[in-house]
Amino acid sequence: MNSDPAEKFSQDDALLRVRGLCKAYARRGNWAWSHSRVESLRGVDLEIPAGESLALIGASGSGKSSLARCLACLEKPDCGEIWFAGRKLALEDVSANPRGRPKIQMVFQDPGLSLNPRLTATEIVTEPLLITGWGAGADRAERAAELLKLVGLGADAGGRLPSQFSGGQRRRLSIARALAAEPILLILDEALAGLDLATQAQIANLLLDLQAERGLTYLWILHDLRLVARLASRVAVMDEGRIVETAPTAQLLRDPQSPPGRLLKESILTTPLWIS
Amino acid sequence: MDSLLHVQNLTVRYGADGQRPKSALCDVDFELAGDEALGLLGESGSGKTTLALALLGLLPPGGSVERGAIWFRGTNLVAAGPRVLRKIQGAEISLVHQEPALALNPVMRVADQVIEVLRAHQHLTGQQARAKSLELLAEVGFAPESGITDAFPHQLSGGQRQRVVIAQAIACRPALIVADEPTTALDTAAQREILVLLRDLHHRMKLALILISHDPAVLAAAVQRILVMYAGRIVEDGPAAQLLQNPSHPYTRGLLRCGLPVIPGSAQARRFDCVPGEPPDLAALSPGCAFASRCPERMEVCGVCAPAETRLAQAQRVWCFKYE
After folding, report:
1. Is B286 left (phi over 0), alpha (psi -120 to 50) or beta?
2. CATH number, domain at B86?
3. Cα distance from B168 to chain A (closest Cα, Å)?
4. DSSP β-bridge partners for residue A239
5. Hey, are the CB atoms on B44 and A273 less than 8 Å from each other?
6. Which residues contact B2 (CB under 8 A, 6 or more apart)?
């Protein structure tokens, strides 16, 4: 294993620094002349200090997931800079860098789509270990069992397929997979969406405990501001491919400065609408 | 009796012979007045959707009503034949699904989809149906000049699609709309719009509303009365304000505690206080209270037999031994 890159940069430096990041996707129309380009990111500037919980919020289509995918090495940005742990990262995606970025891992919104339905839980958490060349066979098996235990999956979970788990357990499994490569930054792209309240609370608690134990840095992508209030210390508001406002959570929820921030605040279901 | 709907001891099971049958609903009993907005609150698997489908006579294959009745305007929907049901489905009781993209036909223009509903239930000429459909779309907020009436579903946002589904649902002036998690697939701004629309329609058209959600804040925003469901049973029933501020059943209390603060930004512990464990397996329920295995206030009697209904106040009912 390489030495931990987190040790190489000074403490007051941000763990992640993004400068002017751009990404456009080609959209195919029905005809040659109707092809177009969708600019998802139009110069994103963002900084996340080590150990922080930053929430990225914004309407659907504002570029939150594109940014996450660029950071996690799933997409290649067109221009801009990504600095991570004091080093400038090459702009590339998995086709150029098949190992991806082990220190930046992502938990996806829908584990039904992001977990391979034909692999058992053990195989799913072992895959990142194989890709990053972690240990020998026996060590990997032991590590896989450890990871499953860490996220609260029982001893019998290893041999089961994703379809044999409940929604909450699948969420736990995708967290275990993301932790396998020992990341420093975890990107949680709507990782709590689509869960019942009780399950959502259990998964949120698991992630908070893991963060406290391992000193992880979290980039939350959330649409529910009530969760933002509880989980993030700072909030960045995204709109049309740019970060338009960054503020401490309490301040942003009290008094958002940007129009998109105000719009989001108004959408919270606060007082009952019902007056009869 | 001035109730529009009376569900009596409704018990629904899934699973054919050979399989372990799942008890999806067990002795569900409630009444709904013609001008009431009722919320169903519960986790997934608590029977909310099964109840909605049973009301429309749309239980999936393998599901059957074992016992009980659904009285709607003097007709028992459980015993009614397909011809009677066909007249009620979509006309007198209509359903708004969770996922509007799946409820709409992707290759049909929006106005035509509303026309299809109208002509299935009413004898209208093409011109009349078209005029009526534009009227309905205006009622959910789409003016004819907006161009949305001639759009295809994929050209609309999630919130717009859900409005089209609602226009279909109100097409035949139903007495009751059942909305099954209508805002779950939407972002928060669209969520609020749809709730406001449903509440307005309920007022304006004087129709009864059953709103299903797992989020107490969604229900708080739009209904007057809430039924809390757990493992196919009703565990608590009461006026929304009273139930949300002062819940009685240990499950309701746990659910509201692990829920989210209604006013964000207030100082609070970061960790969530939550109900431990997972909902029970509906194929292997114990004879006692279904919530007993997760209940922090469990007593000996809870594992032995199921609690009966206890009336707390005028309109508040709870199923828990603590109150018997």
Report:
1. beta
2. 3.40.50.300
3. 24
4. A242
5. no
6. B33, B34
Asked if residue A163 is part of any domain, the answer here is: no
Give the Cβ contact number of residue A184 at 10 Å. Answer: 21
The residue in chain A having the minimum alpha-carbon distance to the alpha carbon of residue B192 is A267
Half-sphere exposure of residue B321: CA atoms within 13 angstroms, side-chain side: 17
Encoded tokens for A108:
């996806």
Cross-chain residue pair B43–A196, CB shorter than 8 Å: yes
Check if the beta carbon of residue A255 is closer than 8 Å to that of residue B177.
no
Q: Is some CB atom of chain B closer than 8 A to the CB atom of A110?
A: no
Domain that residue B76 falls in: 3-92+172-323
When CB atoms are compared, the residue of B187, B215, B278 closest to A197 is B215
Residue of A nearest to B253 (CA): A198
Whole-model pTM: value is 0.84
Which chain B residues contact residue A202 at CB under 8 A?
Answer: 272, 274, 276
Judged by a CB distance cut-off of 8 A, whether residue B187 touches chain A is yes
Which residues of chain A make contact with B36, given a CB cutoff of 8 A? Answer: none
The pair of structure tokens assigned to B280 is 């029970």
CA A19/CA A16 separation, integer angstroms = 10
Chain A residues whose beta carbon lies within 8 Å of the beta carbon of residue B188 = 223-225, 264, 267-269
CA A2 to chain CA centroid, nearest Å: 23
**If 0-12 CB within 10 Å is exposed, 13-18 middle and 19+ buried, where does residue B128 land?**
middle
Cβ distance of B274 and A196 shorter than 8 Å: no
Tens of pLDDT, residue by residue over B65-122, are 999 999 999 999 999 998 999 999 989 999 998 888 889 999 999 999 999 999 999 9
Count of domains in chain A?
1
Count of domains for chain B: 1
Contact A250, B263 (CB under 8 A): no
Q: Which residues of B touch A229 (CB under 8 A)?
A: 260-261, 264-266
In terms of DSSP bridges, do strands B93-96 and B75-76 run parallel, antiparallel, or are they unpaired?
Answer: unpaired
- Asked if pLDDT for residue A271 goes beyond 60, the answer is no
Contact A199 B43 (CB under 8 A): yes
d(CA B50, CA B34): 22
* B215 vs A: CB within 8 A: yes
Angle at which helix B126-139 crosses helix B158-169, to 10 degrees, equals: 130
**Closest alpha carbon to B243 in B264, B266, B218, B216:** B216
Evaluate whether residue A276 is within a structural domain: yes
Question: Is the residue at A129 inside a domain?
Answer: no
CA atoms of B155 and B162, how far apart (whole Å): 13
Does A259 fall in a domain? Answer: yes
3 state DSSP class of B135: helix
Q: Lowest mean pLDDT of A208-222, B153-167, B250-264, name the range.
A: B250-264
* ipTM, interface predicted TM-score of the complex: 0.78
